[in-house]
Design brief:
Two copies of one chain form a homodimer. The first copy, chain A, has 559 residues and is of the alpha/beta class. Chain A has four domains: 3-119 and 251-317, FAD/NAD(P)-binding domain, CATH 3.50.50.60; 134-248, FAD/NAD(P)-binding domain, CATH 3.50.50.60; 338-450, 3-Layer(bba) Sandwich (FAD/NAD(P)-binding domain), CATH 3.50.50.60; 456-550, Oxidized Rhodanese, domain 1 (3-Layer(aba) Sandwich). Helices cover 27% and strands 26% of the residues of chain A. The first copy, chain A, contains 16 helices and 30 strands. The first copy, chain A, has a five-stranded parallel β-sheet with strand order 3-2-1-7-18. Chain A has a five-stranded parallel β-sheet with strand order 9-16-10-11-12. In chain A, α1 links the parallel β1 (3-7) and β2. In chain A, α1 (11-23) runs parallel beside α8 (304-317). Chain A is globular and about 90 Å long. Chains A and B meet through α1, α3, α8, β21 and β22 of A and α1, α3, α8, β21 and β22 of B.
């Protein structure tokens, strides 16, 4: 009878235990968890703070409303759960785990040990970080403490340090009752998910929802008054706050593994069967490192979806199976107020850092047929190698954004090339997509670039051109009505609607070398204009990728 | 200067023309269309009838609200459009098309000819089909005529003949103001999209929305009164109707191609570059046949999304390019009231007909995290070869259904195996999916079956078992509360909640050979029960795929 011991009662641990039970009705399976919370969906904690999920116990429930407590695991899965029990030491030679419960030390023998010790929030070295009212969100008890503090204290201002997914979700939650400032040390928000031009869309949306964002900004000190936090000092000044959330990333909890002499890199090292350097010790979830299948390098990707897959593979392998976890490609999604923000694969910046020779495209547009009621926005960016291999995608919008990224995540997983994507047989009907879905459209645009039909600059490069007083023409080919509703306020901007362009070439300079950047609303007319001008002999014509749908800077308002 | 002539002003034709222009500013491009409507999104016509799209001209508009009329094509794309002009004959030797406009015959020379002659509705041999009030929906003029007739006549009852996507969309539209009966000759509705157990869910939803459905039913005659339709006679009786829509499929319009001596199979035969048997004549859209990439056989797939891709490939190839259209895999989607119905690849029935040795799985569940507000339903069926290769998927629900099918369409396009799907790095966060998305869950279930962990029968087989008085136990392992809310009304049904199962084995017969079928709500507890019973030595235990979430038959209502 196999003895399987799991240390850590989160997603990976219980998945491993449950899967092991399904494959082996006889095994003796024990899960050890140091806190009093087991099998909680931690990704739901920001939504508990926001009140969208009413009780923290809901995050512990099955789809049919039963709480996954010790009794549940005992009766349904015949799994022994030891809560508030800390694994102190692993003796790999004797194959025992030394645990402490209520001050009592006990040794639990194992045939197979599973480490799912999870992660903790990063705890930056900031003076004043121990003040009352400074929180992080690692565990359900943190979520409960934050809600309790919010209810009892008089809080009008919150600061969130860090603009990753958790920071964004908590900023939205706090905004329900507070002024909120987000402080990010990098130059743009959500830097691990988005390139700058996409990030600026989200930043504008935060602004529109009353969240102040400070980027390129380092926190110097958290100030307090009578022990309670009173604000945050940065290099730029002081921001008042009665509540501060540290959301500066998370770190794997590897102390037990390290003490046991297991190899640790970015996190615990495992092979594709999720074995550590000891073949009888498996590890999964937030405490291990993964392989990024695009770069072939190790990556730290602490996600519930990954942990859950790990658990299944471990459950197979500790019961005589031969399952493998191949790796990750870096898919992620976060909701930011009305926007969905998602990515897969590499960002443009990551791809460049890894030395790939790349080409990108930007496809903004409605997420369904443009005249169907309920259409919403979708801005999709695609990144590929110049040899055609897909590398990554990002999408932002209030429409069905995440599943477009899932389509591309599937494509990248299957090592698709841009040419493959152009042929994808996707489901079309007016309530669901444009006749050529944005995914395919974005791939076609990359092909157009590779075929030399259109050259482009990014919307950020366009902004830089304006700011640096370069001499060029921005040819806005939208209708006069669209132009009047808002356009880039600069004397270098010329409005000629695309339908008038062929007969209005005299309004452009004779000099065929003149740099002309075409824009419209979402790109199709701008592309048309580039082709018309190229046909007329203009040599230095480009489109600004994403056009006005990507322009997140101020526009002149017509009178 | 190339002369490109396109016959047919629909999706494929104008896409080919526009793409050709973008690649060749100098070409002379002419589009010939016999009706007065050009570049209309025909897939939107049912929604125009339903009033969701207000004007038929909306279906002719660009995303920025400009109508794509002759003037638009002339000014923006420098394309000549000849409306209400009929191509009468193609002289391939002389490379001219003979056209008739206002009774005048003219010859138009071409270097490259593009046939995008489209399709017409099937017109079954039914007595009375020419009565006033009998319609089909091929062209915008049909849509306008139907709306006009509905407005002017006193209509209380409609009959829709045929339950394909157009039939479903029109049934929903008519239901806004009429009693509606759908008549289908096959044994289930939407037979090209769904297997029987999935189809029954849609049929129940139609019933719940007041649409009467008659399957296995052949129309004998359409009756009329004073020249106007009065009803439909079937083998089962008479159904009153003042409006009848024939939605019995569509047929390619290949007469011109046939007369010109081009090869025609299911439709016009083309190679992967979309050349007909004459290398200077290309064809695309509803008038050509495609290759199904799964079966390698020809298929007729008249869809706007396919036509649009055809157009792009043709536009490349008539301007010196070397583009290919690889084929289709049979993806389709239709909205039926609150449900989205989608499929890709082969249905189980098709796969069996083609002789594949298959295994299927059924994953019903919420489309997002089960405790997140706004969760909706998603029932996903997966079909694979026993060697692991994916063959098809179907999904029905009021949640985000279509994009799950798109993920699987991408997987099938890339020749994925079930094992690949289990690793897919999909975007997870509570507002978007379960921690293990249904797509991955369905793949895991196929693996479980292939690994011998669980055996199953379909919900239809279960129904047959009940109806045929077989001796077996249906073990419903839901909670007593769930059971009380509704269960299969039969004495062979036994309710033991899964959490009580290990300690209640004495309530089951000692005979370990006894056939036991386990069900719960969506399958996870049923699977758990199968594993528990197998562990206890029961040899003949199965789960009913999809469990109660797939049971579309009557349930006993508890007192």
């Amino acid at each position: 009878m196999r003895k399987i011991v799991v240390i850590g009662g989160g997603a990976a641990g219980f998945k491993a235990a449950a899967r092991a039970r399904r494959r082996d009705e006889m095994a003796e399976i024990t899960v050890i968890e140091k806190s009093r919370h087991i099998s909680v969906c931690r990704c739901g904690m920001p939504y508990f703070i926001a009140g969208l999920i009413h009780e923290i116990e809901n995050l512990q429930e099955t789809p049919y409303g039963v709480i996954r407590d010790e009794d549940y695991f005992r009766r349904v899965k015949n799994i022994t759960v030891l809560k508030e029990t800390e694994a102190k030491r692993i003796d790999r030679k004797e194959k025992v785990v030394e645990v402490e419960q209520n001050g009592l030390i006990e040794e639990i023998p194992y045939d197979y040990l599973v480490l799912t010790t999870g992660s903790t929030s990063s705890f930056p070295q900031i003076p004043g970080i121990n003040s009352k009212g400074v929180f992080w969100l690692t565990n359900p008890s943190d979520a409960l403490t934050i809600v309790d503090y919010w209810e009892k204290e008089d809080i009008s201002d919150a600061v969130v340090i860090g603009s990753g997914p958790t920071g964004m979700e908590c900023a939205e939650a706090f905004r329900l009752g507070m002024s909120v400032t987000v402080i990010e040390i990098m130059s743009t928000i959500l830097p691990q998910l988005l390139d700058a031009e996409m990030s600026l869309i989200v930043q504008k949306h935060l602004h529109d929802n009353g969240v102040k964002v400070m980027t390129d900004c380092t926190v110097r000190e958290i100030t307090s008054d009578g022990g309670k936090v009173s604000g945050v000092k940065t290099e730029n000044g002081f921001t008042e706050a009665q509540l501060v959330l540290i959301a500066a990333g998370i770190r794997p909890d590897v102390s037990l593994a390290k003490d046991a002499g297991l190899e640790v890199g970015k996190a615990i090292k495992v092979n594709s069967r999720l074995q550590t350097t000891d073949p009888y010790v498996f590890a999964g979830g937030d405490c291990v490192e993964n392989i990024n299948l695009i770069t072939g390098k190790t990556a730290y990707t602490p996600l519930g979806s990954v942990a859950s897959k790990h658990g299944r593979v471990i459950g197979d392998n500790v019961t005589g199976g031969m399952s493998e976890f191949r790796g990750v490609i870096g898919t992620a999604v976060v909701r930011v107020f009305d926007l969905t923000v998602a990515k897969t694969g590499l960002t443009e910046k990551e791809a460049e850092d890894y030395g790939f020779d790349i080409v990108t495209s930007m496809a903004p547009g409605p997420d369904i047929y443009h005249h169907f009621p309920g259409r919403k926005s979708l801005r999709l960016k695609l990144i590929a190698e110049k040899n055609g291999k897909l590398l990554g995608a990002q999408a932002v919008g209030d429409g069905v954004v995440d599943k477009r990224i899932d389509i591309l995540a599937t494509a990248i997983w299957m090592e698709a090339e841009v040419e493959d994507v152009t042929g994808f047989d996707l489901a079309y009907s007016p309530p669901y997509s444009q006749v050529m879905d944005s995914v395919i459209h974005a791939a076609n645009m990359i092909k157009n670039k590779l075929d030399g039909l259109v050259d482009s600059i990014s919307i950020i490069e366009l902004k830089n051109k304006f700011d640096s007083n370069e001499d060029f023409i921005l040819l806005d080919v939208r209708t006069e009505e669209e132009f009047a509703k808002g356009h880039i306020p600069d004397s270098r901007v010329l409005n000629i609607p695309v339908e008038d362009l062929r007969e209005s070439l005299h309004r452009l300079p004779d000099d065929r070398e003149k740099e002309i950047i075409a824009v419209c609303q979402i790109g199709s007319r701008g592309y048309e204009a580039v082709r018309i001008l190229s046909g007329a002999g203009y040599k230095n014509v480009k489109i600004a990728d994403g056009c006005m749908a990507l322009w997140s800077f101020n526009l002149e308002v017509s009178k």
